Every structure is written in C-alpha cells, then in structure tokens.
Amino acid sequence: MQQLSRTVVRNSAFGMAAQIAIKILSFSFSILVVRNLGAEAFGQYAGVLAFGAMFVFIADLGLSPYAVREVARWRNLPDGAERANALYGNILVLRFWLSLASAVLVIVTAWLTGRPPVMVGAIALGTIGLMMYSVQGTSEAILSGFERLDLASGAKVLNQLIFVLVGALALWLGFGYYGLIIANLLGVALMTYVCWRSVKRLGIHPVRAVVRNWPAMLRASLPFGVIGLTLGLSYKFDSVLLSIFRGDAETGYYNAAYNLVFSAVILSNVINTALYPSVSRQSVHSPHSLPGIYERAMRYLMLLSLPIAVGTWALADQLVPFLFKTSYQPAVQALQIVIWVVPLMFASEFLGYIVVIAGNERRVARSIAVSTTFNIVLNLFIVPRYGFIGAAVMTVLTEAILVGQYVWLLRGFLSQLNWGRVFWRPLIAALLMGSVVFALHSLPLFLNVVLGVVMYVGLLLALGIVGKAELEFVRDLRRQRAGASVS
C-alpha cells in the first residue's frame, strides 16, 4: 500500500505540476487567441480542431490504453521487458498506418461537408500531427505502463511551451490560426522526440513488427477504441454541427465556454491518469485494498468538482467579460449551463476506470456508445434549431446518462460507499458557498473568488467533510513524495 501511494504521489505530483504548468500556459494563451482572433475566426479554428478530434480515434483504435494496462501487468514478470519490446514495435507500425488512414478520412469528410477551402487546408495541415502522435502516443503508453508519467509530463510541458511561444509570435505576425497549427506541430515534434528518448532510457527498444499478431491486438484493444470514438463524437460532434449549421460566431461562443470546462476537468484527468496503471497492478497483487482507494478518490473528486461548478455558475457573467471580451457576452448563458458537466465528468471518468480495471472495458464501451448515440441523434435536431444553448444542454444530459449507466453497473460496490461524506455534504457546502457568492455579486471578481474559497474550506471543516485524517494523509503523502525520486 505504501508503494502504491508513493508511486501515485510521484505520478500525480509530477503530473499535477506539469498539468498546472501546461494549463497556466494554455489557459493564458487561449485567452490571447480568443481575444486576438475574435468570435468568427476563433469559431473556425475550433471547427478545425473539432473535425480532427472526431477522427483521431482511428489513429489509435484503443491501442494506447490497452498498452498501458498490459505493460503495467507484465512489468514485474520475468519476461516483462521482452513482451514490452514486442508490443512497442507492433503498435508503433500499426498506429502509423492507422494515422495515415485517419488523415485521409478527415480531409475527405471536411471536403464533402462543404467546409471552406481555407478550413480544409488547415485540417490537412493538422493531420501531419497524427503521424507524429503515432510515435508519441505509443511511447507515452509505454512510459505510463511503467508508471513513469513524470517523464511524459515533462515532454508535455515542453510541447505547450513551444506552442505558446511560437503561436504568440505567429499571432503577432498576423498568420492567424494557420500559424497556431504550425506552432502546434513544432511542439508535438519536440514532445515526440522526448518521449521516444525516455522510453529508450528505460531499456525498452521496439522489435520488428509481426503483422500476424495485429488482428489479436486489435480485437483486444477494440473496446478501448470504441470508447475513444464515442467520447470524441460526444465531445466534438456539437462543435462540428454548430460550424455547419449555425456559423463560426456561435461555434466561437460555445467553445469559449467549453474550453473553461476542460480546463477544470484536467484535475480529474491528472488524478485518474496517475491511479490507472498503479491500481491496475494493485488489482492483481492486492485486490482487497481497492474499495478503500476508490472511496477516498471519489470523495476528493467531488470535493474539487462541486465548488467549481457552483462558483462558476454564480460568477459566469463576471468571468466571461474578464477573461475574454464583452463581445463574448452570449457565452455567459452557455457557460452557466455547460459548467454543470464538470462534476459529472469527474465522476464518469473515475467510474469508467473502475470498470476497466475490473476487465470489463466492453461494458464501458457499450455505456459510452449509448450516451453518445443519444447525443448525436438529439443534437442533429436541437443544434440547427437552438444553436449553442441547445448544444450546452445536450452536453450535460449526455454526461448524466453516462454516469447513470456506470452507477447501475457498479451498484453493488457503490451501495457500500458513505455517500454523506462522498457527495451530499460536499454538495451542501458548495451550495452554501455559491449562495453567499451570488448574493455578494456586486463585489469585484477577485474578492468574490477569494471569499468563496475561504468559505468553502471553512464549511468542509465545519461539516466534518475533511479533518484530522485528511491532514495526516497529506503529511504522509509529503513524506512519501520526498522518497519518490529514488523509486
């Protein structure tokens, strides 16, 4: 258990530090991009990214998460390194050909849906990144399987730094979002090289691919691929529809709000990414420890996500003009709706990992397929008529349906949790905090945020949601973190 905590702390500490650095850079830069491009140009740029994201699953087909789980299970076996070498070599080659197929499909789809030539050209340019990701993504999966997310995190920081520096220069020189795409490609190239070198330092070297092994690998990874496909559609299909039916401005408003949601969700992703390889190994060697780990993780996820949703709803009309421009005022209503997806996304990602770790990834794929089908069908009717407000509502409903399915699948386990501490008391604290902040709405934004944070922490202590046990846990983690660098 101590080893698990030490490894998770190392991964989450490096991962959190890297992701915070990435998010500070990307969040600040995204504000610059939104302000510089304006709603229409930003909407077109968001449409380019959405088209690419919808097809990126083909470039992977679930091979990366499959590799993480398999390497994590093999690493302590006598032939673990040999198996990892073989898997690395096969996935590198297979993902390259899948990336090529994905690039062709996304360009053809953009052309068939009548996108402007300038947008089709931008999409084609962006597909170069898919080829590089075939190497970077495979290398990162191997690093994750060996529970060295700290190495991959450093590469991501370099990627974001290059993107921000070169992208800012491109905007200053007036190259528009084409300059941003080129800046992104330069950052991905550096990140790919660093991940490749990091894998070699672990002593893992790709061996020659064996094509006859590919069908079995694809069958095993297919559930993960379905998950990637359906998630990509669920998160980006609405932006594609907005771009086609409602124009670039509405696409820009919606994505300005949606980007704030994904900035918050990175907290959940860091925790779950750190837990996944470690708990996968723990499920084999010490399964009795899993319930306690799961309950604590779920409680902390709710402690983080609920105040973010409530506070953002209360202060949305101050946040949007502060972060962007008054011309983005229509995004306020979208943000007040879509922000409620944050606690749902925190929960769905975590519960999905629980099901995957148990070896039931096909059930996860089926659940996401159901919620995504709901999203696609209704968005086809709602987005053309109600625009980005309808898209925001559908985003929340889709995630709620996904969480509901996971709750049903895990009903036996979830019934054992102390839901008072895990959810209800954090919700009460968040709602009380949000009521006070909303009532004092006339205060400057900074004072409102500080007041909300102080009040929420005080309520957590007063309601007994956190206490001595959490303080001792934090002290233990700090001591373990000091020794993590030698592990």
Provide an overview of this structure.
This protein has helices at 2-55, 63-74, 80-112, 117-126, 128-145, 149-172, 176-201, 214-246, 248-285, 290-323, 331-338, 341-357, 361-409, 411-414, 419-439, 445-462, 468-484. By secondary structure, it is an all-alpha fold. The chain has one domain. The longest helix has 54 residues, at 2-55. The model is unreliable at 1-12 and 480-487 (pLDDT under 50).
Please name the defining characteristics of this protein.
487 residues, mainly alpha, disordered N terminus, disordered C terminus
Task: Please give a quick description of this structure.
By secondary structure, this protein is mainly α. 85% of the residues lie in helices and 0% in strands.
Order of helices and strands: HHHHHHHHHHHHHHHHH
Mean pLDDT: 83
Q: Percentage of helical residues?
A: over 70%
Distance between the termini: 14 Å
Shape category: globular
Any low-confidence stretches, pLDDT <50, length ≥5?
1-12, 480-487
Number of helices: 17
What is the radius of gyration computed over CA atoms, rounded to a whole number of angstroms? 22 Å
Structural class: mainly alpha
Number of domains: 1
Beta-strand share of residues: under 5%
What is the makeup of the main sheet?
none
Count of DSSP E strands? Answer: 0
